[in-house]
Design goal:
Elements (H helix, E strand, L loop, with lengths): L1 E10 L2 E11 L4 E5 L6 H8 L7 E6 L2 E2 L7 H7 E4 L11 H11 L5 H14 L15 H13 L5 E5 L7 H16 L3 E5 L3 H7 L2 E6 L2 E6 L1 H6 L4 H10 L1
Parallel strand pairs: 3-8, 3-9, 6-7, 7-8
Antiparallel strand pairs: 1-2, 1-4, 4-5, 9-10
Helix pairs in contact: 3-4, 3-5, 4-5, 5-6
Magnesium ion binds next to helix 1.
Organism: Geomobilimonas luticola
Pfam families: ABC_tran
Family: Belongs to the ABC transporter superfamily.
Amino acid sequence: MIEARDVVKYFGRFKALDRVSFDVREGEKVVILGPSGSGKSTLLRSINQLETIDAGRIVVNGIDINDPATDITRVREEVGMVFQSFNLFPHKTVLENLTLAQVVVRKRSRQEAREKGLELLRKVGIAEKADVFPGRLSGGQQQRVAIARSLAMDPKLMLFDEPTSALDPEMIGEVLDVMKGLAREGMTMVVVTHEMGFAREVADRVIFMDHGAIVEEGTPEHFFTSPTHERTKLFLSQIL
Ligand code: ADP
Ligand code: MG
């Protein structure tokens, strides 16, 4: 689903990604860990071309995203992304947030988009909020709406960038539960998170980044019990 090879990204003279290579197979759940500033967001954003890379290659679902001939909107339609900030449209109701892109991008009828939107709201547990504005929801509810909105596009791949980092502690669980449900259904997921319980439980593979590079990669079992690199051990000692 994702094939990244020697990806390099600069911001000015600062190297934010330093020859990053990894693969994600269909249905796989990969959790990316690493200290603040290690390049996790830049990597995720590069996967759907919110950042353009300076060298290397990223192929998403068979499409080379840096090929000038590639229609990047096509790639973005297949890739859902959920951010730390929920980015809902504040002046649209919850259900309208879910139907807009379905109608405009997927060319679905209003009726079809509404049905799909309501089904997804039920799935994330907030069907009763369909007609309210996002500002009336808690952070956890807003993030569940944001996930549902992504899912409405039938993405082949979901990217999550610290989806629970802006939430009050008591709301983290409800968002992680939705993500675990998605994982069980077989969604291909790349998740940047500091939730180690989620990483242990859900990840097929953990990638640890530091200073723009992948330092260590392995199963959660390997990563949490017998990491090889000093930087990984240091990181774990600081957060566990
Ligand atoms: P992480 O998500 O792991 O915290 P980021 O990918 O956000 O790290 O950032 C990696 C590095 O790149 C940081 O040092 C950050 O300051 C820098 N960076 C990120 N985005 C930009 C930008 N748009 N312009 C300049 N520097 C940036
Ligand atoms: Mg980040």
